[in-house]
Amino acid sequence: MNILISNGRVVDPANRTDAVQNVYVAGGKIVALGRAPDGFTAERTIDASGLVVAPGFIDLAARLREPGYEYRATLESEMEAAMAGGVTSLAIPPDTDPALDEPGLVEMLTYRAKKLNRAHIYPVGALTIGLEGERLSEMAELVEAGCVAFSQANVPLVDNTVLMRALQYAATFGFRVWLQPLAPFLSQVGHAHDGEVATRLGLSGIPVAAETVALYTYLELARLTGARLHITRLSSAAGLALIDQARAEGMDVSCDVSINHVHLCDMDIGYFNSNCHLVPPLRSQRDREALARGLAEGRINALCSDHTPVDDDAKQTPFSESEPGATGLELLLPLTLKWADRAGLALLDGLARITSDAAKIVGITKAGHLSVGARADVCVFDPDAHVTITREGLRSQGKNTPFLGMELPGKVRYTLVEGQVMYGLSEQQKVQSP
Amino acid sequence: MRNPQLNQHGELQHLLTLDGLPRNILNAILDTAAPFTEVAEREVKKLPLLRGKSVFNLFFENSTRTRTTFEIAAKRLSADVVNLNINTSSAAKGESLLDTVDNLCAMQADMFVVRHAASGAPMLIAQHLQNTGRDHIHVVNAGDGRHAHPTQGLLDMYTIRHFKKDFTNLTVAIVGDVLHSRVARSQIAALTTLGVPEVRVIGPRTLLPTEVERLGVRVFHDMREGLKDVDVVMMLRLQNERMNGALLPTPQEYYKIWGLTAEKLALARPDAIVMHPGPMNRGVEIDSAVADGAQAVILPQVTFGIAVRMAVMSMLGSR
Question: Where does carbamoyl phosphate bind (chain B) (predicted)?
Fold first, then answer.
């Protein structure tokens, strides 16, 4: 279908574009910007006056919970959430059940996702079989099946010999390894940041050393093996400082942070709010400020939702017994806008962290930008509308997020995937929206 | 965010923690407890304040002493008491905590006295009752994880007030395993709220929680330095499972350095009192000569504990 997105403010970080212009879509691709190509007739016109037209967002961590945790969420429910959030590309962590350690599993997941015809998925394969940290997965086969990188998700790798071998093996092919800095044991002794709040509430603490000790190890082994390392979900100022230092020494390492960690800190746990039970834990206010600043300065490369739908039963328990994680796909844009606004960043630079910068980490070239010839994954949103986050309003099956009840900026109006409108608010809904 | 234990009028709806509880409420509980100590002296030790009310002792963690004192307190107020010991190993999970609570609510409970191994469990129950519009049911925390043991903290304050009269000129030392102690957290909250100018914690670094000084205490590792000129020594129990391992090498070494002996106690003020929440490990955290000595007020603590629990339950239950 030929679609004209007219009069929108096109914000395309990859091309450093921020201007009101028309976008022409045909055959699933962007075919022109500004002036219509010869012979173009729009079968549908989306009036984007007063709205922002951006590349569809790329989320570096979205757990869709399949296979294995269908009672928490399904591909269907989470794809709807992605569309409502303007997220058109999802990197999927391997901590499913079974873990994404077999080409057949990855193929099945990719096939299911394709059939649903919503967001594109980019599976991250398990670095070791069953994430158990003993045997390497068939990395080459997994890449053939569609994996874009390898990781241990949130499962610490205990044996550093295995980690070293895994990095060596991945480096043989130039595969990317995404590692969550969680030192074994140190990261497993507690449920909240080891600081005043945990002390006051009597929650056992996870020290910052759980992150830094792991980072020292990972960075040293990456140096040794030449592996391409991406550090996921930084939580502390000290962790970021180690990455800065490694880069200053000439190392090529990227990193990301979750929407939760640039907006929240341990004080938000309040009276044992289990929606704030996350991995890694929410750390101090100082850490949060350092992460938000690091992201603004580009020292942290990307922002992600770390979408982890958890069922109510697993959250309505005492904090330490609750399942960590929060839903986030539909909050990625609002929380990016809020962070960028607070950091005094232009929209163009803010959106880069969930489009062009994230694309580089996943290795996506056809999307994450609005160049002519690019895949027409587009999000059209109203940057000035505010939305109150409610359980009812969330499409994800996971209703638990620390942001429930908060009013956040940014309302997605249309989401296009490969030139098809997969989400669109009707005129009536537009009027009702706050 | 409203303190979940107070209602919209700032009155006590549940007793969950002493952290953040205003001084006037602390004093009101202590004042209410005073006449109840006399009830115990009478031939008929009963008052009709909670007649017709059902108090459920909901113990998810073993306890004989605390459960018994709550039971006695409730019975002296003429309440009907139901004891439930629900042993939960985290592995063998059956009914969820809130399902259990809902079931007991359906049996017309008026008050839950809750002990749980997880910090925050009583608060979760209180929030659940509030969210489901059951404001007539009250929750008393009888100890949750490492978080709080408010009635223990209150009975300790009652004991200090009884022997020392005034809080505002005292130096108080809390000795031992503060890290794992819900008692210590409640004591610190109450002492600082009641205006004690110097609260000290003494122990090895492995047993003091991170940033504990942010709770308003001075940190000492040397027992002799920490006990110097204090008016009150509050000993903490050292759990058996923590005596040999990565926190402490042996109970012998612990006793040698942090055990309270007559010789170390001599560094405190001559009229200093010695307290312990029980049960004691004689020869580990405290020497028998001190535990049974003239300065120990450990048994009065137990007696006052009943009066304080009566005060809390009557204030909640008669509302």
Answer: 65-66, 115, 149, 152, 278-279
Looking at the fold, whether B169 and B237 belong to one and the same domain comes out as yes
Angstrom distance (rounded) from CA A137 to CA A52: 42
Q: What is the CATH number of the domain that holds B281?
A: 3.40.50.1370
Secondary element (H or E) of residue A254: strand A253-258
Length of chain A in residues, anyone?
Answer: 434
Q: Do B73 and B178 sit in the same domain of this protein? A: no
A196/B1 CB distance under 8 A: no
Residue B141 and residue B208 in one domain: no
Q: How distant is the alpha carbon of residue B30 from its chain centre?
A: 14
Residue A306 among the catalytic residues: yes
Q: What domains are there in chain A, each with its CATH number? A: 56-362 (3.20.20.140)
3-state secondary structure of B139: strand
User: How do residues A275-330 score in pLDDT, each as one tens digit?
Assistant: 999 999 999 999 999 999 999 999 999 999 999 999 999 999 999 999 999 999 99
Reported ipTM: 0.95
Its domain, for residue B134, covers 23-148+303-316
- What are the structure tokens assigned to A363, written together? 């290795």
Q: Chain A: nearest CA to B189, how far in angstroms?
A: 9
Q: Is residue B271 part of a domain?
A: yes
Structure tokens at A167: 């990095």
Residue A136 corresponds to which tokens in the numbers above?
């390497």
CB contact under 8 A, B210 and A321: no
Q: Do B88 and B116 belong to one domain?
A: yes
Q: What is the DSSP letter of B60?
A: S
d(CA A169, CA A151): 13
Are B123 and B173 within one domain? no
| DSSP 3-state of A386 | strand
Report residue A432's pLDDT band, with 50, 70 and 90 as the boundaries.
Answer: very low
**What is the number of structural domains in chain B?**
2
Q: Which of residues 271-300 of A touch B (CB under 8 A)?
A: 271-272
Alpha helices per DSSP H over B194-281: 223-227, 251-258, 262-265
Q: Write down the residue that tokens 């004209």 correspond to.
A: A4
- Cβ–Cβ below 8 Å for A202 and B145: yes
> Which of B4, B116, B144 lies closest to A271 in CB terms?
B4
Classified as helix, coil or strand, B165 is coil
> Helix B97-105 to helix B121-131 angle, to the nearest 10 degrees?
50
User: The whole model's pTM is what?
Assistant: 0.95
Burial call B271-299: b when 16+ CB within 10 Å, e when fewer = ebbbbbbbebbeebbbbeebbeeebbbbe
Q: Looking at the complex, does the CB of residue B209 fall below 8 Å from at least one CB of chain A?
A: yes
- Using CA coordinates, name the residue in chain B closest to A284: B211
User: Does B7 fall in a domain?
Assistant: no
B82 in the same domain as B110: yes
